[in-house]
Sequence to fold (254 residues):
Amino acid sequence: MRKRPCPALEERGVSLRRFFEEIPSTQAEAIRLARTDAPVGTFVVAARQTAGHGRGDHLWASPPGGLYLSVLVPAPPSAPGLLPLAVGERVRQHFEEAYGVRSVLKWPNDLLVPREGRPPAKLAGVLVDRVGERLAVVGVGVNVAIRPGDLPESLRSAVAVLRDLTSYPPKVEQVESELLEVILSTAELLESEAGRHAMIAACRRSLYGRGHAARVDGRPVGIIRDLGDEGELWVESGRGREAVWAGDLTVEEG
Ligand code: BTN
Fold:
């Protein structure tokens, strides 16, 4: 393991960064650190992962040029399902403001870049793991400057790369320092009721697929209508309205 300086944190006089050239998963390492009483703000970052993963058993292909970041934050006092959506929304806002890159929020944890006449492409994913009562680990993967040729063939046409979408392509280290602040400040926002309300309103505005038919884990669930106050997805079918709390969403385009 090697430590490199991180400007955003050095300003605060702390060094909580754990950097790896290669690691199985920053998320697994951050969870391990959380269990050993590492403080809030500790974060793990890697140049590449050999076993990066998303929710469930999804793989997150992690070649060089991507950001692979996992951060220890305080567990939200309520509505834990909001955390991945809220982080996704604030990352979305940041990419739009800083780089002019427009994306949408796919429930429950992805940022997608719309494409003309084709399904949207995946730019980033967020993963949240709760560790005990006190902590959560927020993991973010972003295709900052990966080469699609380094991905498994089945994923190559399904990804969006930040470098190709902006006239100001950032370095991975810059995005790391920006998203670290985004993640920590989002967790702080969710500690207050006003912050939670503001976040859910913003997530609703960015929700991808509203009005479209959808499947969850392959099962048709009806039309996507809205997000609920705890981050659940509301869908409507012949059975009426129902809330979906977890699963893999597929939106039918067109
Ligand atoms: C998803 O699409 O389900 C979320 C993907 C999250 C990937 C990030 S990369 C950094 C951290 N380490 C992991 O193994 N996963 C997360």
Observations:
- Residues 37 and 67 are 25 Å apart (CA to CA).
- Confidence is low (pLDDT under 50) at residues 1-6.
- The longest strand covers residues 118-131.
